[in-house]
Each structure stands twice: as C-alpha cells, then as structure tokens.
Structures
1.
Amino acid sequence: MSGLLILIPVALGLGLLGLITFFWAMQQGQFEDLDGAAQRVLIDDEEPEE
Amino acid sequence: MTVAARLDPASSEALVDTRFTVPGIRCAGCIAKIERELPKLKGIANARVNFSAKRVAIRHAENMPHDALTHALQELGFEAQEFDDNPLGSEDAEAKRLQRALAVAGFGMMNVMLLSVSVWSGAGGVTRDLFHWLSGVIALPVIAYAGQPFFRSAWMALKYRRTNMDVPISIGVLLATALSIYETMAGGGHAYFESAVMLLFFLLAGRALDAAMRTRTRAGIGALLSRMGRSAMVIADDGSFRSVPSQDLQPGMTMAVAAGESLAADGVVAQGESAIDNAMLTGESMPEQVSVDSIVYAGAVNLSAPLRVRVTAAASNTLLAEIAQLMDEAGQSRSRYVRIADRASRLYAPVVHSLALLAFLGWMTAGAGWHQSLVIAIAVLIITCPCAMGLAVPAAQIVTSGALLKRGLLVKDGSALERLAEVDIALFDKTGTLTLGTPRADITALDAEARSVALALAQASNHPLSKALASSLRDADVEAANVISISERGGDGVFGTWRAIEVALERPDCMQAGLSSQLRIGVDTSVIGFHDPLRSDAEEAITALSDMGIESRILSGDRSASVSTIARELGLHARAGASPQDKLAMLDHLRRQGRLPLMVGDGINDGPALAAAHASIAPGSASDVSQQAADAVFTGRALMPVAAAIRASRACMRVVRQNFGFAFIYNVFAVPLALFGMVTPLIAAIAMSGSSIVVVANSLRLARLAR
C-alpha cells in the first residue's frame, strides 16, 4: 500500500508532464509549418559571400 | 534563421503583425530570401514564412503602409496579397481543438486504465474504493474537456431535431459517467470511467485523422482575385497618368498597360498591338495576338508591347470575378453530399437508442430494479457504439491518401475519396490536362547550325514560344551559337548578328494554320511549327478508366479543330468551344440523367465545373484556383494517377464497407451479451480495443496500393 502512495503520484506526474510538454509544443507553433521545417534544413545559416 | 531587428532607435514605436498570402513560395530559397531581405528594409522588424500555408507574417512599424509591404515582397519577386482572417481559418482552429482533446483523452485513458486493471485483477475493499475515487478525479475533468466536440455537435443536432453519430456517443458517455459517480459514492463494485474515457479517445483519434487530412493546404478563393492587376494607370482627358485601384475603375476609362503587366479590368484595345497571355483564363498556354478592337480580359498578362485599353467592365463585373462567383455557387451543390459515416449513423442511431430503451424497460418489467436496469442499458449504449465505427472510415481513408500521395496524387479530404469511388463518367479538359499544356517545337527541319543559332536567339526572349523552342532545343543537347548584339522588338521577334550575318527569330510572314515562328539566317528562312503533345500515357489511362466502367469524354473550351484531332486519336466523344457556363450545364445535364461525373481540368475556365462535378481532379500545373476547387491534384507528366485515384478510392470504400461489416458482426455478438447483463467493464474494454485493432489492421492493407 505504501508503494502505491509513491507510484500513483509518479505515474500521474509523468503523464501530466507529457501532456504539458505537448501543449507547450503546440503553443510554440511547432506543428504549424511541418513542410517548412523540412525545407528550412536546406537554408545556409550564413549569408553567402557576395 | 538570421533575422535581426533593424529598426532605428528613434522609431521605437509599436510594432504590428500583418499577414500576407504568397502563393509563389516553393522552396527553401524562397523562405531564405524573404526572411533575410525583408528585415533589411527600414520599418520591418522581421518576417516569418509559413511554408505549408504559403503565408508570410511581417512584423513592422505601425505607421508603415501595407502597400509598401506588398511592394517590398513584389521587389523580391513574389506576388503577395494581404491576408484577412477568412472563414477557412476556423477549420485550422477546429483541428487544433481536436488535437488537444485527443492528448487529454490519451493522458486520462492511460492513467484510468492503470487503476482499472488493478481493480479487475482483484483489488478489493479500501483499495478498490480508493482507485474508483482516483479514477473519478482523473476522468471527470478529462471527459469534460475531451468530450466537448461530441457534446457540442450532439447538442446542435438535437436543437434542430435531428440525430447524428454524436448523440448516442454523448448519451452513453454522460450516462456512464453519472452512473460511475453514483457507484463510487455508494462504494459499489463497478465503475465505468475507463469505458467512457477510452470511447472518447478512440473516437477522437478518428476525428483527428480526418481533420489532419482536411487541413492540407487550402488558401481560399482569395488567390483567384490576387492574380488580377490590383491597380491600373489611367489616362485622363488631359493626357496625364494616375494610378487607380482596380475596384475604383469605371467603364469608359482608358488604361495604359505596360508590357509584363496584368490587366486590372476587362476592356477593348484602343491603341497598340501586342501578344497577351490568357493562360489564367483559358488554360491555353499559347499567347494570343491582339490589336485595336480586340477584347481583353482582366487577369491576362500583356507580353510584348504597351497597350491602351478602354475599360468595358471593372471590379466585380469582370469575367474573372464572374467565374469566381460561379465557382462559389457551384461548390455549394457538392456540400449537400452526405458522408458515408453519417449515412451509416442515420440507420444506426435509432436502432441503438431503441435497443437501449428496450433493455431498460425489459429489465424493469422483469423486476431487476432501476439500478440494475440502468447499468444494462448503459452497457448496451456503450457497446453498440464501438470505436470501430468511429475508426472504420478515417483509418481507411488516411491510409489510402497516404498511398496515393506516394504516387504523386494529393487528395484533399475523406469525402473526396468517397465521391471519387462513385463516379461513372469522366470529362477531360484538353489543354494542360490530356496534353502537357506546354508547346513543344518541331525542330526536325533544322540543321545543326540553325539549331544553335535558334537556341541563342530563343533563350534571349521571354516570349512563351521562344521559351518552348529553347527548352525543346536544350532537350536535344544543342549548344547555343555565339550570336551578338541580340535585341528583342515587341511583337516582331528577336534579332541578332551571327558571323556577320543578320539572324532573326520572328513572326512568320504568312499566318498559316497552327502556331509557328520563323528562323531567318541571312536570306534563308525556315518555319518552326509548335504543337502541344498528349501526355504519353493518356491512351492507357483512358483504357484503364474504361476497364473500370468509366466512360471518358472531352469537354474543352478550345476551338473544335484542335479538339477533334485529339478526340479522334483517343477515340473519345468530344465537345469543343464550351464556356464555363456550358461546362456547368453539361454537368447538370449528366446529373439529371443520374450520372456522377468526374471533371479533370486545369484552367480557370474549368474552375466552376471542377467545383460542381461530383468529384474533380486537377493537374499540378493548373492555376491555383483550379487546384483549390478540385478534390485531388496530381503532379508529374503522366495521366495515369487519375485512373489510380479511382482504383484506390474504390479499394478504400471496399475496406470501409468491410470495416462496417466487422463492426456489425461484433455487435451481433456483443449486443445479446449486453442485453442479458453479462457485460462487465473488463469485457467491454477488451471488446472495444479488439474491434478497433481489427479495423485499423484491415485498413493498413490499403498501404499496398502504393506499390
């Protein structure tokens, strides 16, 4: 019984953590432009020398 | 990304965001160009491209006029239009709500299951009560949040005295929750929290899949009007020029249209001679020669020389705006189509409701007491509204559209697949659909020297025929000759000097049938003909369609001579010279005969027909508007994806029907158990996940279509 007192809050906490992370990612717009993310890999970070 | 704020410290005023639709964003280079170059301008803090939605959000100083931003994008080579929040935006929000609800339901399901499995495996006494309480504490907020899409839709249906799939779901979930709360408080043996949450999770998964399919690129009808010139130079009586926005143009005004500009209104040429590109309107890729008194339409691009055009119709009276209007209306007839899942639930919901009610009344009269009777009635409701039903359609459709995507065909949504499976006659536009839409030059008559001179001249010009000639020559591995002092004279051709001989690529002296241009080297002239070839597999695709029992016809806006040549070649019935209205009338006529037509076309003149047909497909080279109106878009040079789409959608519907079959068989076994009160929460949970897995597994077979 004492094990449950620790394990249940841990299980709930981990689940909540995942849920919050997902909401955070949505809030940040990480799912807004999925095709764009694939294209952006190809952009050079530095501007080419003229 | 390297966008730094480049604002003057002096102008540290409020920044605002403005969003623009930029259909021309096609690659990483475009993203980089916009995001790097725009912030270099004074007043713009940063720019952020959304590639999927073809949108640019610009953060700029408040006092900066929006025209300046559009102009800045134009300088970079992108046509842009300010983006107003349109009703299509709400679809995005809906998809997000579903995703969030799905995440919450998933969280709830995992934790409640954890507790329920312990109860099923024998936890008793205080532990069981504790677990029931905990389940309740987790499940209640989860149900309140994740159930909203169903509750709202069920409420709307009930308000209008109708019923849909969401009514039994909502009643089942709410009753199960209420009863579970009662059981928990009374310290009873069974709580149904996990059934309620699991039901929501599986159904939300189906809905979210469906929404994910739908949100794929729809930029709204605005793209059509953005092609029209937004302003025009109007010549006043005193000869002065002023810029007038297109919506303020009046019939009778005279516009000056420079080469390269697009027309802002319909009109008649008053002065000048030029070639105009009507591809926007007719899908006809070849330029049209215009001179005084020729009629020209808004959206056409003036190619070679300046023109003066007397406006005859402006703003919402132009042909282009009329087509947009026509499309809007035509699309409404299709919205009357009822999705297969809704058709199933119309039969299903009354049966389920009466069964549950019968079970309740039956057990009451048998003297089981209201508590027991209610438990059984709820078990019937939950078990007869299996997740398999919610997953049967979306699972099959998302797998099919994924498979088709690999073959170069993008299907807009699930209802499109359902309608594609039903079509029994196909109507093809000619130019750009059966044919490639880009003219190819016939260079067999030219010798090696002539070819290299022709390439040197052709690649110096932007005229569509020159471009076509250059690409044909490059395909034949021709190297350009060293032609010097090349100049282009609008309407006449390209001229230059090669080995001290005068050479030219010009309009042929005699206008003969078909398109041609003339290559002159010194005094020798040779005429180069152009033709628009059929897609290489057009015949196979049409045969494949007829093997599936689909008759094909040609419905084109082109002149009858060129249409009948192709009709003969393919052995098809053809109708030429059809206006957008004619095409609509033809579709209407077919529909009244009880046929379900598929329209395949690319031009804006096909737009209304694409929107009105039972189902429609457009090639990737089509105008943006046609791509939006169509249910599916295929890329590449082959026509076979059209036949593949029909075959795949039919296979998809076969699987959907099998899935419904599974759901039905499952009910045949489960309902009697539920009616006789033999369904425990454990059995309900196993049956529910079991049937869902069967349905998803069956749907995954469709992935083989890609091979």
2.
Amino acid sequence: MEKETIFRIKEGDKEAFEQLYNEYIEYALRTAIAITRNKPDALDAVQETFIRVYRNIIFYDEERPFKPWFFRILVNECHRIMKKKSKVIFIDKYLANSSMYSKEDSYSFEEYEDLYDAIQGLKDINRIPIILKYLDGFTEKEIAEILDININTLKSRLYKGRERLKEALLNIKERRIKNG
Amino acid sequence: MDERMLDGEIKKSLLKATDDWLPLKKEIWNNIQDKVEYIDRTRAAVKKKKSRRKHVFSSIALTAAALIIVLVTSTNAGKAAVARIKDLLLPEKNIVQDIEGQKEDTRVNLKEGSGYVIYIDENNYQMIKQDGKDKIIPKNNLDSSFPEVYLAIQHVKDKTLLDMVPLIEEELKASFEYVDNYGTVEKPVKSISLYARSELEPRAPIVTYYLVDDNQGGSYVIEQRLFLEAAEGHGARFYHMLKEFKVINPQE
C-alpha cells in the first residue's frame, strides 16, 4: 500500500502525496511538538519535512522502509530549528524552571503532566529516543537508524532515560501520597 | 515499579501532552501546497527546456548512443566510455563568464575523472588528486590567513544520494551554525544541494555540496569550499565549471 503511494508520488500524483500527508501528519506533529517543546517550531519542522520529502522522493530507495526515512528527516529538521533558536535546555536548567518542581504542592496537575515534564527534563540524547520509542512505537533498530547511532549506544541511552523516568514517577507518586 | 506500567505511563503522558496537534493540520497543508506547486512548476519548465534541447541534439545523441553500445561490451566499459565521450567533446573551448559583474571570455579545458568529464579554467586553476578526490584548486595560492578554496569531486560508488544527504548534513551541522538543505537543484548541475556557513564575516568559510547521482547506485560528492569575499570570484568560476560537469554512464 505504502510502496504504491510512494511510486505514485514519484510519478507526480498529488492525491498520493495528500494521502501520505494524512497518514503521517498526526505522528509527525506529535513527535515534533514533543521534540521542539512548542507548537510554532513543530509546525515549521513538519512543514519543511513534507516539502523535503516531496522534493527528494525521487531519490528515495523503495526497497527500504519509508517511515524511518521520513522520521530521520523530521528529527533532523527539529534539531536544525532548535539549534537555530538555541532552545536546547539541559536537565539541571530545565528542572529548575519546570512546573514539576515549582508547582510541587499543586493538586491541579495531573500525573501525566508531571511525567511529561520529567521526560522534557531529560538530556536530548535520552529524551529523543524515548519520544521515538513510546510515541511513535519505533523498534530500537529503527531508532538507531533514524538517529544514526550504534544500537548498543541507543540501548544504553534508552535505559538511562527510562531509569530517570522511573525515579521521577516514584517521586511523583510518593509526593501525592504524602500530600494526600 | 512494574515495567509494563511504566511503559504505559510514558506513552500516555506523551500522547496527552501532544494532543493538540489537529488544529495545525490544515494550516500546514495549505502552506505545503504553495511550495509543492512551485516545485512542480520549476520541474515542468526544466523538462520542457530539456525536451527542446533533446530535439536539437538528437543526431549527436544517436552517435553517442551507438558508441556507448559498443563500449558496454568492452571489459572496462566505464573508462572506455569516458575516453570515447571525451573524444566526442572539444578538448578546449571558450565560454563567457560573468565575474564580479564583468563579462569575461575564458578558455576552458576538458578533464576527465572517474566516470565523469568537466571543463576547467586551466589559466587560473589546476586539478590534483588528493585523498581519493579530484581537487580543483587555484593556481595562485592565497596565503594561509585565508580559508581554503577548492572544488573537490569524489565518486562514492556504494552510497546513494539518499545515504549521503543525512551524512553530509550531520557533518556540516557539527561544524557550522547555519546549514540548509536546498533539496533538488537544476543549476549549476542537477543535484541535491546543501549549504553551510557560520558568521557573515568577509573571510568566513562557506561550503556548498552538490550530490550528483552516478546512475549506478552511487554518488558524486562535489564539495565547493570558499569564503564570503571570494563568492563572486572563485564562486562564479566554480559555478561555470560545474555547469560543464557530465556523468558518463556506460549502462545507458
């Protein structure tokens, strides 16, 4: 199905491109929002990704899976925009400003929001693999390909990220119990 | 904590936090459509131009095709094809270049590399072999306080354009503040082009890559390196040389 769509796009079929857009837009946007941490940058990254895909699809090798190729372009675009705007915030700086800590006593925050803050507080090398694994459901092999890193490096980054989140989630739960 | 529960919680938090994606869908599609139409119009114009050229040069193409068929049967088809195509082309010719706003009549000489030919301005440049690349460098070397100036051509036989683009993009991003992937360009040579620079200082290095398909599953990686002040001089001369870059494909 996907192969046929790609073939039609290569032939200049606009409907096929729209079909691909409809199929990929939701997870492209969700991923870009999570990576760039804001909607305007996510919009720019996703928009540029689809344009690049359209421009370069003639060079895409149909024997290879399309989804990792697409997400590799998307992640690179997110990186480019973040670098341009210098929005890379590392964990210590982020935690100091995050709602998870500044609103410790607020009961209005849902648990998932705290956990999301914790994900966003991870370093990019741990955060982005976590997003690709849990939001997009990529396998470890696919994530390693998308990020162009060794699979063992990726496993270690995922493990460390997950451990940090496990710790964060336990703290959130403990805090809630303590606060009643 | 139960591992599966943690996985579920992470997934749920990511999904909930990114739930407001839908309003952007229409906006992005509208923006993309304008760009896509522009890309299509450019492609159509190039096709039309090519087809006119094809008609004019049909007899030349027939001669070349006949030669290529003979060459495919030879043992070293690639090299032979380049040599024979080279024979069909003028060993030297005059071109008119626009250098810093002035028209300049320049004599250029035919050079061959691994599966390609190019005309270079031998009065001002020389072609050397370095690190597996063909490098076109200025004859009058600038002193070491200036950044490097060259046009390097490398044939990467086992990597497609698709393989090369992200590799080069990453490499550039590691060294430059501003990196742009122009996508497919038609001039000076049909390729995927990437551009990188840092600060806008007169002597700040500027790198432009042109990745050309070798039509055999590999790529030609052309790296143009100069600095801002030299863009209208060396930049213009490299541009005219690249217009004469031709891949010779024995399988065609």
3.
Amino acid sequence: MDFFDFSGIVPALPGLWNGMIMTLKLMVLGVVGGVALGTVLALMRLSSSKWMANLAGAYVNYFRSIPLLLVITWFYLAVPFVLRWITGKDTPIGAFESCMVAFVMFEAAYFCEIVRAGVQAIPKGQMGAAKALGMSYGQAMRLIILPQAFRKMTPLLLQQSIILFQDTSLVYTVGLVDFLNASRSSGDIIGRSNEFLIFAGLVYFIISFSASLLVKRLQKRFAV
Amino acid sequence: MNYNWDWSVFFKSTGIGQETYLDWFISGLGWTIAIAVVAWIVALMLGSLLGVMRTLPNRFISGIATVYVEIFRNVPLLVQLFMWYFLVPDLLPQHLQDWYKQDLNPTTSAYLSVVVCLGLFTAARVCEQVRTGIEALPRGQEAAARAMGFKLPQIYWNVLLPQAYRIIIPPLTSEFLNVFKNSSVASLIGLMELLAQTKQTAEFSANLFEAFTLATLIYFTLNMSLMLLMRLVEKKVAVPGLMSLGGK
C-alpha cells in the first residue's frame, strides 16, 4: 500500500468542524434532556407510590437491556408513524429529531440510576429537617435534597456524558452527518479514508481522554 | 391508529428460498450469540492479563496496561470497528491482505473484525474490573501467600485471582451483557446479526413494529436470562463470610 498521506485533512477541516458541531449538539441536548427525564424517573422510582415506582423501574430495565443502536434505528423508522397517529397528518421529521428522541429516552434510563443513587446517598435527616421547617415533600426535594445530590453525582453525570459523546457516533446508521460520518465521507471522496479514520479516532481520543482526566480531578475535589 | 398489526408475519415466506422471517431472526440471534460469546472469551482472557499487569509493582508493565485501557476506552466503539474492518487489513503484509480481502468470504472477514474489535474493546473494561477486584482484597492475603513461600505467579493464580473473580461477578455480568448489546454494531459492517435481520425484515415485510418488538423482546429475554444465570453462579461461588451473601 502507499504511505499515509494526511495532507488531505487540512482542506476538509471546515466540513469536519461542522460534523463536530453536530456531535456536540447531539451530546449536549442528549445530556440535558436525559438528565431532566432521568430526574423525573428517579423521583418516580423513589416515590412511595408502588405503581409509579414500578413503572419507572420497568422503563429503566427496558432501556438498559436493549442496544442503543436498536433504539436509534427503531425510532428513526417509527417516529414518523407515531407522529402521524398523534397529529393525524404527515409530519416530516428528520434524522436529527428522531436521534434526539432516542438519545434522550435511552440516556434517561442511565441518568435515572445515577440520580437515584445520588438522592439515596443524602442522609435521611435532611428530609426530616426540611419537613420540620414546614416544607412540603416537593419543596424539600427541589430546594434541599436534589441540589446536594446533584453536587455529589456531578462526576458520574460527566462520566456518563463522555460515554454519550462517544455513543453519538452511532447516528452513522441513520446517515446523520456527525463527526465520524463527516470524516468517513470526506475521506472517501479523496480516497484517503484510512487517514481520515485515524484522524477521527485521534480527535475522539483526545477529547474523551482530556475530559475524563478533568472528571478525575473534579472527583478528587468533590470527594467528601 | 391505522397501522395493521399482523403478528403472523414471522411465519410468512420472505420470498427468498423457503425461508420465513422467523428463520431470519433465528439466524440473526445465532450470529449475535456467536459474536458475543467469542468476543467475551477474548475479553476475559486479555482483560484478566491486563488487570493483573495493572496491579504489578513493575511501573513499566503496569504502564503498558494503563495506556491500553485509556486508548480502548476513549475511542468510540464504532470508530474502533471501522479501524479493524477497513484500516487494519490494509496494514497487513501482502499475502495476509489477499487472504483477508479475497479468500475469506465477506461474512467471515466481518465476523473476524467484529470479534477482535469487541474483544479488545471489552478487555479494557474487564481489566478495570479485575484490577478493582484484586485491589479490594485485604493486603494480608498477598503477604500471607508470600510468607508461605508462594512465587508471584502462584500468588496471583492460587490466591488473588480466585477471590477477585468472585467479588467482581456483578460488574463482570454487566460487561458480559454489554457485549451482547454492543455486538449490534456488527450490522454496520454488513454482518447479518439480530439487528441487521430486524432491519431487513422491517424493510421486506413493511411490518416495522412487529419486527422491532420481536427484536426488543429477544434482547430483553437474553439479558434477563443471562442476568439470572449469573446470579445463580454468583451465589454458588460466593466467598463465605462476605457481606455479599446478604449478611448471612
């Protein structure tokens, strides 16, 4: 084979950058939506209502036992159908939106477990004290328990976000142009797909590695 | 709702030979299992070796294992798969390259790539678990073994590893389940495992929801049964006197 030639990467950088923006957009929206839905699920799992707790438990078990790739593929094919049932008319929906829904719903199951563990790690007395001050359950959760729990679980949430950052590459399957897909196609065009693949791997590595180093430092600072 | 549910679709002919859609699912499940089991064996062996390396006093050896773990944990699985499938064969010597690209049929070469990829990918995670297990053991275990005249390999083989493995069964189980889930990336290099067959059924039969429901059910059942199996194993081999027995 001919020697590696990485010179083709420089002119392709703007396209790769757009791909990276897409990757980051998917990750950030996935984390924000996933944490929001995950927190709701965690509160359901912790609620005294058996019915709610079981429902949330089933949700978590369900999404944790199937591959993310299956969820992405399924939602991509199914979301247009479901929307048609709901709205009664054809709603055009792109790969981006369906991937968003898939990431949020899938990651929520994982974030739920992190939030649940975080809340459970807060001493019981906190809730008792809040109630003694006349707060309702909701107020105590929102103002006392959750802020402390989130502080404690920040490293875990960030770790899960790094995993999601890597997992966004799976949108390749529905043809969404994220960083990996941008690298693949720009490499294919000039017949240098190997070089672009190495470059992509390197970029993913540098970002995740430095992010996880940061998380480790954070973990030390947050340690009680 | 005007979607026509039709669960009998799985018994209908696919129009290709005598096959029904159910046959596709069965063969897909077979591939999924074939990938996951072999990749798991690779991961367990390599991961244990790396995990032991990380706990050795020799800085150089433990450094190698650390670098391995960081590389394989920080590059997305799909990127690694593409590397094993597209890039690595190009780097092989000419005769191996010809063998891989021409003599092997496409399914075999995809299978080989996916098994190597998943095996090495998971090994990094197994390594961390094995290391945690060894480090969780009381230091006295190693000291006692040394005092009895065990050599380093004997200490690991006879004293540390047998205990470490039994502690880390729960996290190892979840890695084992992850291998099954992660094997679905094989569909992206054209291997007809479970997810690929599901997609194909959805396209051929237009019974999208039935196909994906069945796939979900299969993954779910696979997960649950493996989890139950591992719980049994865990109970069977639990180290007596530890809290993990439920305080008994």
4.
Amino acid sequence: MTLVLFLEQTLNGLQQGVMLFLMAAGLTLVFGIMHMINLAHGSLYMVGAYVAASVTLASGNFALGVLAAMAAAGITGMVVELIAFRRLYDRDHLDQVLATFGVILTFNEATKIIWGPQALFLSTPEILSSTLELIPGAPYPAYRLFIIAIGLIVGLGLRHLILNTRLGMLIRAGATHREMVGAMGVNIDRLFTIVFGIGAMLAGLAGAMAGPMLAIEVGMGEKILILTFVVIIIGGIGSVRGALVGAILVGLVDTYGRAFLPFILRSLMEPSAADSIGAAVSSVAIYLLMAMVLMWRPRGLFQAYGD
Amino acid sequence: MITRKNLVHGIGLLIMAVLPLAAEAAGEPFLTTVASRVLIYALVAVSLDLILGFGAMVSFGHGAFFGIGAYVVGILTHHSYEATAIAFLPGDWTGTTAALIQWPMAMLVAGVFALIIGAMCLRTTGVYFIMITLAFAQMLYFFMTSLPTYGGQDGLNLWERSTLPFLDMYDDTQFYYVTCALLVAFMAFARRLVRSRFGMVLRGCKQNETRMAALGFPVYRYKLAAFVIAGMGAGLAGALAANHTEFVGPGLMHWTRSGEIMIMVILGGMGTIFGPVLGAATLLMMEETLSGFTEHWMVFLGPFLVFVVLFARRGLYGWLVGTEADDGG
C-alpha cells in the first residue's frame, strides 16, 4: 500500500463522488422544494446514458451525445412531471414511492422495447482517452479527471444559481414557504416544473458521462439510485451542500473499502477468506457509514433550507 | 351476522380451502403450485401491512426479512446435505432439514435482524425512514451477492425440501395446505394483535404519534415490537418460499421485491388483514396472465400502478367491502 496507490484511489473516489453528486443534487432539490421522493430519478439517468450512446454512435461526436442526453432527460423529466408527478406533491410519501416505482417499471420496459435487452457499450472520446501523469509515476485516465472537473463546475454553477440568481431565490423561498411564494404572484407550478427539469438534466448528464465507463443496460438507474439515496440521507435531504459532502464521502469510503479492505484483512487471516470477507464487507461499507451518521445526526449532516 | 364484509371473508376463505380440489377437478393441477406462491406472498404482504397499514411505518425493505428467512432454510439444508459444520456457529452442528427447527429459526433470525435494523431505522421518520429501510435491505442484498460461501450471485439450490412429520412436502396439495394453514394462523394472530391494546397503541401512533407519546406510551418500543413481529412473519414466508422454488438467491431481497410486496398491500387495501391477500393474488395473477400475452408486460403493469395510486386509494378490499373496511378486521 503505497502513497501513489492511495492518491490514485482518492482520485477514483472523487470521480465516483462527483457522479453521485450530479444525481443527488437533482433528487435533493426536488425533495427540498416539492417534498417529493422520486424513485424514477434513476430512470432519467438511464435515459441520459442510452440517448448519449445512440447519438454518439450515430454522429461520432461525444459532446453532441452529452448535450442530446441532457436535453432528452430534461424534457422527459418535465413531461413526466406535467402528466403524473405534479399530482403527487400533496400526497403522502407512500403514494409517491409507489407511483414513481410504477414509472420505473414503465421506463425500464420501454427502454427494453426501444433499445433491446442487450447492453450498449460506448468508448471513451478520443481527446480524453489518453492518460495524464498527475501523480508522478501513476498515469491517470484523462476521462476520469474530466468527470471530476465537470462535477466541480456543475457544483459551482448550482451554487451560483441558488445563491445569486432570481430563480435561485425563488427556489430557496419555495423550499421554506411555498404557499407564500405562490401568494406573492409567482407561478409556482412552472417553478416546480423548471426545478424538476434541472434535476432531470443533471441526471441525464450523469448518465451520459457514465456511458463510457459502464455497460449501458436496463436497471443501471436503480443501482445508482440507491447509492444516491444513501448520499442524500447522509448529507441531509434537501440540502445541495449536503449532497456534495455526502457524495464525496460515499465515493471515497466505497472506493477505499474496495481497494484496501482485502489488503488489511489479509494481514489478519488467510488470503482466500480475507478476499471473500473483504469483498462482502466493502460492499456494505457505505451503508455502515450511513448508519453511523444517522446514529449521530438522524436528519443528516446538513440542514435543508426548509427545515 | 351476514354482512358484506363477512361475506367477502367467507368467500375468500372458502376459495382458499377448496382451490386444490377445484384445480384437480378442472384438470389443471399446476394451479395449486401457483396458488401456493400466492399464499406465500400473501403472508409476507400481511406481515408488511402490520407496520405499513396499522403503524404507518413505510418500510421499503421488507424483502430483506423475506430473504433472510429463505436463506436460513437454504443454509441449514445446504450444510445438512453436505454434512459440513456451520462455520459461523459455535460447535459443529451440521444443520437440519426438519421444518420444525428450520422455520422457527427462520422467524427468529429474521426477528433478530428486524430488531437491529428497526432499532436504527425507527430513530428516523418520514422519508428518511423509507430510504434507510431501503438502504439496509440493499446492504443485505449486496452482502449476500458478494458472499461466495453461500452461492453469491448465483444463489443456493435447495437439494431437499424441509421435512414435516406425517406430511410429504413434495406433494403439491399437501404443501398448499401447510402454507394455507400458516397464512390463516398468521392472519388470525394479526387480527387479534391489531384489536389488542398493543394494536390500539400502534394505530394511535399512525394517527398522531406525538399525542400517543404525550399520553405516556413508549412509542419507540411499541413501533419496534411491531417491526420485529412483521419481520418474523416475513421470515416465515421466506422459509416457505425457499421450499416452494427449491432455490434461494439474493434476488429475494432485491429492492424491487420489497416494492412488489408494498404494491400488494396498497393494491389490496392497507390497514386491513384481508386486503394484502387480495392484493397478492391480484398482482401475481396479473403477472401470470399478462406475461402470457407479451414479454413486455411490465409496460402495462407500470402505468396501472400509477393509476391505482392516483385514483383508487382504498384498494380492492375497500371496493369490495365498502364502508365497513376500516375497522381493523
């Protein structure tokens, strides 16, 4: 276990954290403002990945694929919001969970019908397929650095949007007192649709960027959705800052666990047992992290605007 | 007294009692196997309804306890078959296939897990509770997936069904009646439970938890007890499910399973004892029928579900029974 390996794993953890942040930001905004728990957020991620793959393969241009993915996910999100989800804002969470679960089933099956059951694969765009020697002696894939950069830019952008723009002001106000915002003459329905669209777009972006690293398949949305839940529970539901901190924490803990736990266990027991127990324990490390955070702070690390 | 409600209950029980005979008479004996599956899911749905419908605890991880029950049976049978000692238990017990040991153990282990998980989850409420129960269930799912000792992702084949004295568990009709008896016993227990003082406190918490606490009830302990009882019910159903499919895999704990169980409760009618049974029957029959028409049957199930949530709040049971539905019977 050398310093180089540690730094490399740190970058991997950051990259995973940034992806989770893109997902968590949208989910937490939607919850913070509309008080809506949206399981179908992962489906928008899947839509993003599939559209990005299709457009990139057709046009040969990854940037175009990413833009198309964001547009497709954003539009899909807003359409679903208009048709179904806006009826759910005043319902209890149980109804929201069930209805969005129904939406997941629909999306998964529709995706299977449109793109077929086989997984799609997307190669890394050429410009980013090289490696950079950021840490001396350990070349690191440029694409992963690119993801970290994009994540940080989106994070800063969101911060600017929420703190410094009129829309952000309305979002914050809507989280605290939505009736009041409505009474002041703001079209609250439209605000909700826009917020939902922003969240969906970020999920689409995350899906598009995950494309070159994962198999693009039905069900990929649910895998990341559960991790995203863990992130926003740790961060505090409704808080974008919490989403960022939670995402980085989860990314790092997960990556370190998988990379180092079998090593550490090997010094304590025989290798084969160490590997299997290490794999099993590291796969649940983030849930243990979540349990510990909740013991300490049952409402997450950061308070949301509305609370 | 013949009321609409008693009539529905009577017809329901009658159908449950004569189904294998009717299937035999109609020359479609495989229906008995399908019906056994329905009853197993009905059992887990009734157990979820105890906390979801009567206690307003929206647990999205009930599949975990279902899976734990199944794995207890799977692991005990596995060791018994291979005659190897169970490594994580003291001594050198090599498991057993006796149902009278396996099934209570399945309930016990599921109950212990429910105690630990519930103790942590019940510190939170609302949307946190939903997500954290979901996360714990996923944690168990991933744990079993990455544990090669018991089949990992591929699961375990059950080489031998549990054995009961005087009964042949390989006989579909006998298996059905064992399942049926356990379900009816659990429903009778649940009915007594929700009408008892304990049940009243639980239902009081559903309406206003703060008020119950102000009345001096240790709300947390009541809720935790209910959570454990529900977990044990799911564990028993899991033990039956393992025997039914003769296979145990992490898929039993996957979060979509928890979602399905929840749908059964809502579809049938929450906060009733009979509703979840109806819901389980309806959902599984729909699955069975629709998958006969098209492999993409989920495309119909999904929107149907959204529709049920948006427009049919009281479930099938409420629709059948009318205004008498809400008295905890």
